[in-house]
Amino acid sequence: MNSCSQKIPPSPRPYTPQITPGEVCFRVVEPNCFDTSARLRDMDTAKVNVQCLSTVPVMFSYWGKPEDTEEVSRFVNDDLLAQCQVAPDRLVPLGTLPMNDVRRAVEVRFCP
């Protein structure tokens, strides 16, 4: 079985992983969304051979300033690539682009 999952880049400080728009918790984020080892264990349990990893939609940041969105996209894409390199035969990255600026959206030029 193949599937797709979302990843959240690591935080520079400890926190309770959750998505909280405003004052109400929308979703508690499970470790398999930011811990590659947990993701691989879950894949093994579910008999998933290969999984495409992408970021959560809020990290697309299309509402931001283009220069900020470009920086966020690079950060997210670099993290996705690093996470997928842990098990390149099982994890495939699906990056994001700063879609609010066409010139900046050519991020693909910077991929190895």
From TrEMBL:
Arranged from A to Z, the UniProt key words for this protein are: Decarboxylase, Lyase, Metal-binding, Zinc
Q: Part of which pathway?
A: Secondary metabolite metabolism; quinolate metabolism
Using the record, list the residue span of the signal peptide; answer none if the entry has no such feature: none
Q: Name one GO molecular function term.
A: metal ion binding
- Its top-level enzyme class, in one word, is lyase
Q: Might you give the EC number(s) for this enzyme? A: 4.1.1.45
Q: Which reaction does it catalyse?
A: 2-amino-3-carboxymuconate 6-semialdehyde + H(+) = 2-aminomuconate 6-semialdehyde + CO2
Looking at the record's lineage, which domain of life comes first? Answer: Eukaryota
Q: Name one GO biological process term.
A: secondary metabolic process
GO CC terms, sorted: cytosol
Question: What this chain does, per the record?
Answer: Converts alpha-amino-beta-carboxymuconate-epsilon-semialdehyde (ACMS) to alpha-aminomuconate semialdehyde (AMS).
| Subunit text | Monomer.
Q: Which family does it belong to?
A: Belongs to the metallo-dependent hydrolases superfamily. ACMSD family.
Protein name listed in UniProt = 2-amino-3-carboxymuconate-6-semialdehyde decarboxylase
Q: Which organism is it from?
A: Haemonchus placei (Barber's pole worm)
